Here is the input.
Amino acid sequence: MGFLQRLIGRFSRQFSRDIAMDLGTANTLLYTKRDGIVVNEPSVVDIDVRTNEVLAIGTRAKSSRGRTPARIRNVRPLRDGVIADFDVTTKMIVHFIHKAIGASHLFKPSMVISVPTCITQVEKKAVIDAAHTAGAGTVSLIEEPMASAIGAGLPIHEPQGSLVLDIGGGTSEVVVITMSAITVAQSLRLAGDAMNEAIQAALRKEYRLDVGENTAEQIKINIGSAVEVPGLKPMQVSGMDVALGRPSSMEVSPEFVRRTLNGTVEAIGMAVLRTLEATPPALAADIYDSGLLLAGGGSLLRGLDTYLARCTGLEVHMDTDPLTTVLRGTAKAMQNRVAYRDVFIN
Here is the structure.
């Protein structure tokens, strides 16, 4: 029986393709060893409310956000980094797995999935169950800031402190890592989505202009910043005049957007300071030398690294590709489970 099990195991590994997944509030990314990054799409799904049929997933569903008729429900099944709608999340994962390795495969793929540090046991089970329902075999979980540290090449195994700030769509997480473990952590359910919502709310309040989520995100990307950035030009924005009930357009200044984002930016800065205050002296000394690593799509806000450097007095390093840092680290852990066995949390 032992020989047969080993033979089946070798045969299974030959035909299956292990998958690393960054299951994010804003975007989902999948990686396979053979093909690299095979999926990088928004975590959005269109559902026909009459039949419960999935009509679109990913990029196509995001483009229809705010434009769907009553019979179509546009869903973001993850909120604050965790599953809010189990059934829709499962359908989304099935779709992305099939896109990554095909709809029919002989053996179930093993998966490593990144999750927020603040995830509860119930939420962990929901992620694992969704992956199993989607056709996965063994499912391992890794915390997103830990995956970011691995992806950026930080010395996580050493008795040395590393400070990581990962800003995604739903959560901002600050951690201190040493010897393959997170020793201090702060988690905020304020990140990229909160910035978009702040822009929407400010436009409604100050200019009576109602804009969609995608428009708010484009404003943030095009002219958003954490500090004053020379050379940014005002942006023409179209939406609905809530007082007159008709389409309208206006010019939005970078200064207005910067003031609007100030609350979220300050909250993230305070989370970093609270983490530093709780850090043991020896690890704090290491961090003073090595600085702060920024990762995640939310860290791409212009001038955020400058703001955090002023706030903390630390040197701030942006990862080379913040949008894929978590996935790259998750993939490394997937490909060398023995070396990274201590980072898995289930």
The two ends are 28 Å apart (CA to CA). Residues 78 and 322 are 20 Å apart (CA to CA).
